[in-house]
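Let's study a protein:

===
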Amino acid sequence: MENLAVREQDRRHQEADISRRQDASHSPKVGMVLAFTGHYDSVKLLARFLELAGVDLVKSRLSTPKIIEAGTTFASADFCLPLRVYVGHVLHLVQEHPDLDCIVAPNILSEDGISSTCSKYRDVGGVAIRSLGDTVGYLLARADEESRARLTELAGADAIQMRLEKARHLPAFIMPNIRSLDYVDMRNVCYDVYADIKGWSKTQKVAFFLPGGLKPRLAPQLARVEAAFAQAYSEVVEGQRSRLEQLLADQTKPRLALVGRRYLINDPALTCDLKTWFQKRGATVLSASDLPRDLLWQSYHQVDGYYDTHLEGQAFINWAADKVDGMISLGSFGCHPDAFQVDYLAEWARAQRVPTWTLRYDESAGSAGFHTRYETIFAFLEQRRDQRLAGKQGQRLVAVTPDSEGIQLPMAPLAPGGRKVSGHPGQFSDQGRNAPAPPAVAKPKRPLI
């Protein structure tokens, strides 16, 4: 009898939740994590769209010691630190806002359509459910009565009740797949997420595909949604050029380029205040996210690689090499791609005559040890800045082919399956996207840093 009462209570809660979400006067309360994959433009675009569309959006952005502790406690140690911290952010949202209607957790498959993201980006919501609850219990809580009764008969009421209890505190997760940052593709993703948040049926979703002349009469509520997406896309994707011009305006500041994953660059708790440390001391700090996509794309599509972070990092180095006083190639110690990319990208930058340092971070990283490194790097950046302003820095090496007298570029990393991917001219590849090899340059007279 007790189990029947619990099932009936769950059913009533589920019906009330659906009714509340479909109520036009109800403003759904939605959670999003803007750490980790939240630093991708597609996720920032989705979050901004929901805000402009009138959704009550609760965001968790910066990691704190409490969030890091929760993530490293509840998530598997087999995951890299940033993914475990993502779980900590989800727990923070659930505990601080128990009235959430849902959490939007996008799966980032790609933003350019030609590269692949790391596998940990493709199921962040699923990782959170498994770490903080139970997958079967989560699905049972949202299953119809017939399906739940059938599984109860097979597994037993006690086992089913235990599963339900483990996932009872979790809200619904909306997990759209993102495959491109293209305007139409992202518009469709945003519209689908909005419809799911509102609890629209498939029939109601047809309103998005009505001809323009019919929408004002048959679906007047869509005008705000369409305007919200257009504004969000303009702000997030098309508004980067002015920000870059502001960063480069002051020639007298030391300039540092950070090459690495966006969530490491922009989350101070994960990298011992790396970006903010240099900014507070007057340096201009640049990263790939500061570049308009057309500038990055000039060499992005010519890089022969597998991961988006490889293509983005190398294209950013090509653009920034004659504009900065030094670079830091950074990564997460527990990240498999970073284990190879950090050194590879650092060597690529050094081949362009840019002083470059490598830094790796994990949960045991301490600010004291890293801040002393930052101090040394900053002093060197100031020297390079002075040389740049005096015009004594000299021309950088545009590129060096492996068989020239110049610097030997590193061996290209292996893509999954052991296939070689080239990161510099002259290396073979089965993808056929190599840029033409530039002319060889003379060996530099002084050693490179």
Observations:
- The chain has two domains: 2-133+169-236, 240-390.
- The longest helix spans residues 367-390.
- Residues 387 and 393 are 5 Å apart (CA to CA).
- Confidence is low (pLDDT under 50) at residues 1-6, 395-449.
